[in-house]
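INTERNAL AUDIT FORM
Audit reference: QA-55
Scope: verify that the stored structure record matches its stored sequence.
Auditor: D.O.
Record contents follow.
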Amino acid sequence: MALPRNCPQDGQFIELANCQSRSEFVEKSMHFYMGYLVTDDTTEYLSKALLTSMQGMLDSNDDRMRSLLFKLCVETNMMMHVIAAHFKDDIGDLRVSARLRRRTLRLGGA
């Protein structure tokens, strides 16, 4: 099995793979592909740059979601206090946001 003769970059691929012949290049290619097919963890076959890029995107998304969840917790806590104050007819402290933010942090917020 050999590379098609009309492939314009076949010589460059063979040189990049550090192969002496087309047969050696095909053998290395088949070995790589068969390893890819039988492995459960395909990360060893993916480019390190691709993995780093994907990890960066996931970390960024993780930070954003953590921040949004914290804000949601503070707002929910504030809403619950407003509802409780309404039914008790006691408005209490209007500076509830800072206090609730501290409370949420104390209870395990980021």
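Auditor finding: record pair retrieved intact. Residues 32 and 45 are 8 Å apart (CA to CA).
Action required: none
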